[in-house]
Amino acid sequence: MQRINREAGFRAREDRLKALLVRGLAGDNAAYQVFLTELSAHLRAFLRKRLVRLPDEVEDLVQESLLAIHNQRHTYDPDQPLSAWVQAIARYKLVDMLRRRAGHEMLNDPLDEESGLFSTADSDAAEARRDVNKLIAELPDNLRLPIVHTKLEGLSVKEAADLSGMSESAIKIGVHRGLKALAALIRGTL
Fold first, then answer.
1. Tens digit of pLDDT for each residue in 130-158?
2. Contact, 38 vs 17, CB < 8 A?
3. How far is CA 166 from CA 20, 97, 140, 143, 145, in A?
4. Under a CB-based contact definition with an 8 Å cutoff, are residues 181 and 141 in contact?
5. Distance between CA atoms of 129 and 131, rounded to whole angstroms?
């Protein structure tokens, strides 16, 4: 009984939001504003469940998702469930944020009180980084840029493609071939 009530409540919310969006797509700005306002509450709940450890990220992700939904509203097919379309966009934004965050966290290790600030390992790492940068600079742009953007800057394949003007396939191939070429360069210098 409780499951049936929950499903009925979900259907009612889905139907209401879908009707508001369809009216908004037809030019009813007031309906579209209500749609965005009500949808933001649902997105917030959806993302809070998935970002329990990162509660400060929820609001930014809600806004990013709403912006993406607004920008992609022309792709919505009224014959399809609204919730599936919205969740796909919200999940994409969530994964994108987690990838960016993981890349950022890998580049920014917190300082431990026990580790020496001016240890020799830091200078060794700086020398190694400088050597790798010299080797990467020897690669042609179609191999160097994909590695720099995805592996060093932590961008997604799509972001790297947009930034470099290359296709996503070319980015993936460039990373693969570039890493092989880089390995060959390193073997040649040892």
1. 777 788 888 898 998 898 888 877 888 89
2. yes
3. 39, 22, 14, 11, 10
4. no
5. 5
